[in-house]
Design a protein that fits this description.
- Helices cover 37% and strands 18% of the residues.
- By secondary structure, the protein is of the alpha/beta class.
- The strands form 2 sheets. It has a 7-stranded mixed sheet with strand order 4-3-2-5-6-9-7, with helices on both faces.
- Helix 9 (228-240) packs across helix 12 (281-293).
- The longest helix has 13 residues, at 228-240.
- It starts with a helix and ends with a helix.
- The chain binds S-adenosylmethionine.
- S-adenosylmethionine is lined by residues 31-36, 60-64, 66-67, 81-84, 87, 107-109, 134, 136, 139.
């Protein structure tokens, strides 16, 4: 390693103390509590998130507030949703006097985001919705799926995740790294990288490195399909048994059988020996449309 590189990363030594504001509480592994302590990464996330005075910022899992304060300084209004009750009071104390901050105790997966977005946008006269978070890794995929599928009106999602998950999310459909999450992401959004976050950037340090990605929601989905939910069901079924061919994995869907899938594959001009990860988004969309007709 060059001396220049060493000095650049010198501040990223694993910190020995919990971040300020965590109040000495024991971080919960079960809740994915790895607190961000690296100032450079914090600044990159805040800058890359698009938080501005015309934006409603929704922060997922504010934890000890490492991102909450700098985001709130830029946001028109900030709503932070945190599951861990122990963190709510410290967060309220930390943000005391900031009248554009709302701390909600709850599970992001149970939160009615449509209602939240509609009501706050209207109340505060905001134009954009920016979702931001250093996600609890145990539910990264369900959170991203929820944001993509159920929340309307989101403009961008800037989130920290495990690097390997990030590789799948940023992958081109039909390439080696693609997974079930690649397709809905590509259908709804354009992905760009905001920052790398090696494990030393957190307290306690996780066993994996992380990456921050920004998903900009497309005005129109990337491809046309008659029923996007059905297409995503086909993708999930296709990847549920990665080693199986598409013919076998799709035939195991409810109401499907091999003959029907075989006919659809032929009509879509897709070889029946192919596996899900070799399909482009266009091919999945076409196949799903034909399967519904069959
Ligand atoms: N944002 C803080 C930071 O960067 O230091 C904390 C990030 S930590 C990786 C994830 C946070 O999400 C924790 O504070 C955890 O308690 C919270 N969390 C876990 N599951 C959650 C859920 N279902 N809904 C909302 N927050 C959750």
């Amino acid at each position: 390693m060059s001396s220049k590189k060493q000095s650049k990363n010198a501040h990223r030594k694993h910190p020995s103390r919990a971040p300020h504001g965590y109040g000495g509480l024991r971080p919960s592994k079960g809740l994915g509590q790895n607190f961000l302590t690296d100032e450079e990464v914090i600044a990159q996330i805040v800058e890359g998130s698009g938080a501005a005075d015309d934006a409603l910022v929704i922060e997922i899992g504010p934890g000890a507030g490492a991102l909450t304060l700098p985001l709130a300084e830029k946001a028109g209004h900030l709503v932070a949703v945190e599951l861990d009750e122990r963190l709510i009071e410290p967060l309220r104390i930390k943000t005391f006097g900031m009248d554009n901050v709302e701390i909600i105790q709850g599970d992001i997966l149970d939160t009615d985001l449509d209602e939240l977005i509609e009501s706050r946008k209207k109340e505060y006269g905001l134009s954009y919705v920016r979702v931001v978070g250093n996600l609890p890794y145990y539910i990264t995929t369900p959170i991203i799926m929820k944001l993509l599928e159920t929340a309307h009106g989101i403009d961008s999602i800037t989130v920290m995740m495990q690097k390997e998950v990030g590789d799948r999310i940023a992958a081109e459909p039909g390439t080696r790294l693609s997974g079930a999450i690649t397709y809905p992401v590509c259908y709804h959004a354009r992905v760009s990288k905001v920052a790398d976050a090696p494990r030393e950037c957190f307290y306690p340090a996780p066993k994996v490195d992380s990456v921050v990605l920004r998903l900009d929601i497309l005005e129109e989905p990337a491809v046309q399909t008659r029923d996007a939910d059905f297409m995503i069901k086909c993708v999930k079924a296709g990847f549920s048994q990665r080693r199986k061919t598409l013919l076998n994995s799709l035939a195991s869907m409810e109401g499907m059988d091999k003959d029907r899938v075989n006919r659809a594959l032929e009509r879509a001009d897709i070889d029946k020996s192919r596996r899900a990860e070799t399909l482009t988004l266009d091919e999945f969309a076409k196949l799903a449309d034909i399967l519904q007709e069959e």
